[in-house]
Amino acid sequence: QKEVEQNSGPLSVPEGAIASLNCTYSDRGSQSFFWYRQYSGKSPELIMFIYSNGDKEDGRFTAQLNKASQYVSLLIRDSQPSDSATYLCAVLTNDYKLSFGAGTTVTVRA
Amino acid sequence: EPEVTQTPSHQVTQMGQEVILRCVPISNHLYFYWYRQILGQKVEFLVSFYNNEISEKSEIFDDQFSVERPDGSNFTLKIRSTKLEDSAMYFCASTPSPSDTQYFGPGTRLTVL
Predict the structure, then answer these.
(1) In angstroms, rounded to a whole number, what is the distance separating the alpha carbons of residues B104 and B101?
(2) Which residues of A52-84 are buried (b: 16+ CB within 10 A; e: fewer)?
(3) How much is the pLDDT for A95?
(4) A9 band by pLDDT with thresholds 50, 70 and 90
(5) How far is it, in rounded angstroms, from Cα A6 to Cα B83?
(6) Would strands B10-13 and B108-112 be described as parallel, antiparallel, or unpaired?
(7) CA-CA distance, B67 to B47, in Å (whole number)?
(8) Is A32 helix (H, G, I), strand (E, B) or coil?
(9) Is B31 in CB contact (< 8 Å) with chain A?
(10) What mean pLDDT is reported for chain A?
């Protein structure tokens, strides 16, 4: 069973629209959740982390966590062409390693 | 802003050769990690390291792999006898505590011919 699953994409949105990315995880004991952005050929870059149920906003990004449903999401508001990248959902396991999803590729059309 | 650095950025080697990938974690971080990403696949955990010891390792991290902190700044990953399937991007990461955000280096692209 996959530990972290993301909507497969690719996701194409027009500039200025909202991009919605989803992630589910299997380990109910997980406590820390991260969204990384990865441009092609580059390393993962932290966008946001979230530990508590509910919403967390940082600029144009909002992360949502629902531990009961084992679900994490990321909303990108007012999407820009520079947001075009692969977004990785990562869950910190009980032995403190990051378990990554396969990523969702987002393309923002100008 | 402090960054994790990695060298080399690209390493080409022949199958069966030994390679050493180098990382300089952020200076006040104590926990270090290696991950790899085969082209088109997800990022996979290899090993975590704290206090000069391996904390956790994945099933990928077999006897061909080893890690070392040879001095106060470097953290290395050695692959003793490379295989074609070792071709991947290798990322080093560090964090001040295990529950904190892990910060990734730019990666080393390893190509095994």
Answers:
(1) 10
(2) eeeeeeeeebbbbbebeeeebbbbbeebeeebb
(3) 86
(4) confident
(5) 30
(6) parallel
(7) 8
(8) strand
(9) yes
(10) 94
Q: Do A100 and B107 touch (CB under 8 A)?
A: no
Tell me which of A43, A51, A89, A92 to substitute to probe the interface with B (most B C-beta atoms closer than 10 Å).
Answer: A43
Residue A58 has what pLDDT? 96
Q: Does B91 touch chain A (CB under 8 A)?
A: yes
pLDDT of the residue at B110:
98
d(CA B49, CA A19): 36
Question: B16 to chain A, minimum CA–CA distance in Å?
Answer: 25
User: Is the pLDDT score of A94 beyond 70?
Assistant: yes
For residue B1, what pLDDT is reported?
A: 78
In tens, the pLDDT along A55-64 reads: 999 999 999 9
How many angstroms away from the CA of B36 is the closest CA of chain A? 10
Name the H helices within B1-111: none
Of B26 and A7, which is predicted with more confidence? B26
Its sign, for the CA torsion B27, B1, B6, B34, is positive
Residue A1 reports pLDDT greater than 70: no
What is the distance in angstroms between the Cα of B75 and the nearest Cα belonging to chain A?
17
Q: Is A6 helix (H, G, I), strand (E, B) or coil?
A: strand
Chosen for mutation from B35, B57, B61, B104 (greatest number of chain A CBs closer than 10 Å) is: B104
- For residue B23, what are its two tokens? 């990382």
